[in-house]
Structures are given as structure tokens and as C-alpha cells.
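Q: Give me the 3D complex with S-adenosylmethionine.
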Amino acid sequence: MATKSELTQQLGVVVGFDDPRADLEQYRTPPELAAHLVHTADLQDDIDGRLVLDLGCGTGMLALGSALRAPARVVGLDIDPGPLGLARENERRVASTAEVSWVRGDATQPSLNPQADTTVLMNPPFGAQDGNEHADRGFLESTSDLADVSYSIHNAGSSGFIESFAGEHGGELTHAFQAQFELPRAFDFHTTDTREIEVEVFRIEWN
Ligand SMILES: C[S@@+](CC[C@H](N)C(=O)[O-])C[C@H]1O[C@@H](n2cnc3c(N)ncnc32)[C@H](O)[C@@H]1O
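A: Here is the predicted complex, encoded as C-alpha cells.
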């Protein structure tokens, strides 16, 4: 297995959104965080030989991180067709050998059939910007139907919500970690060149 820092380097070629949409919270998950999440999932045996779904795949960062390990198959799904083209280009850049499909669809109403041995990786919209707190709820609802294990990135302070959501949907929160990253200015309403985002990442087992 390649190291986490090797994976970070491999993901460094993943290009960000050309024309990001604020309403869809389009920003690239940083390679360091994506590599940390995928490496942790791989150490837990949650990638090897499994179907990996990246809900709200955007540039394809999380899908491609898992495609660089040994999944059975990877599917990236996004509601916006623009990033799916970019994700395809990024797939060529990382040159992974795993089978990867890019699907346009709504992650809150996915037209995917649940299959055994499915891992969801996702960095869903938080809804924090527009006051639509827990916009990630719909993504988690789909995940509880589709996956037997998931890794998801949420804004800081989500642990109470995640724990009770998991409990109410037959899930168990098994691991959590915090991370920070800087995002470059992308939208007109950003007042500084970079902004620091604090997030929490959760592993949930679904029954
Ligand atoms: C924070 S970005 C994800 C970033 C992605 N991990 C990456 O590194 O590029 C959130 C993504 O969710 C997508 N999205 C928002 N609402 C969605 C929905 N209802 N169904 C599917 N995708 C959605 C956005 O288009 C965006 O690409």
C-alpha cells in the first residue's frame, strides 16, 4: 500500500472547479485531507475489493483517491454535469487503473441500487452559508440506504447531530477526527484571499 504522503502527492494533480457554484458549495477537498480519509478507510479494510461511492464527487478527489487503492469499482455522483467532465479529466491525470464511473444525479434521491460491500466517501454541502443548516442530512439519508460503512466530512460542531442521526438510522459512529484547511477565495462574497475551514470527519457503520 502506498503511504499517505504518496497518495497526497498523487492527488495533487487533481484540478479544482473552473467556475464553482456557491449554491452547490463547490470547492475541491484538499489532497491532504482526501488522502488522510482514504488512507484511514483503507487501513480499516473499507476500500479493498469494495464498491466505493463518492456522493457529490465534484472534481472526483475522493473517488480518485480510492481508485488509487484496490477497490472493486468506484462511482462518483454529482448533480452538476460541469464537474463530471472535470472529474473525467482528473481521472486521466491520476492514471488510476480501477474501474471508475461518473454519474449525474441527486445524491439526496440517488437512482443507485444498494449493493453489498459498499463504502460511501463524501464531502457534502454543509448548508452553513445560506442558513440551510444540515444540508448534509439528505446525503446521510441516502448513505444509510446505500452503504454499510461511510466516511463523511462535515462542518465543525456536527458530532452531536451525526451521533443522533446515526442512532436514529441504524448506524453506529465508530471513529471521528478533526481537520482544518485553507480554501482560496472562490466567490464574490468571500472577503479575504483565503479562509480557514474547520471540519470533522466521521466513520459510521450502517446496519
Ligand atoms: C464540497 S463539494 C465536494 C467536493 C469534492 N469532494 C471535490 O473534492 O471536488 C460538494 C459537491 O456536492 C455537489 N452537490 C451539491 N448538491 C448535490 C446534490 N443534491 N446531489 C449531488 N451532488 C450535489 C456539488 O456540485 C459539489 O460538487
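A quick observation: Helices lie at 4-11, 31-43, 61-67, 81-94, 137-146, 159-168.
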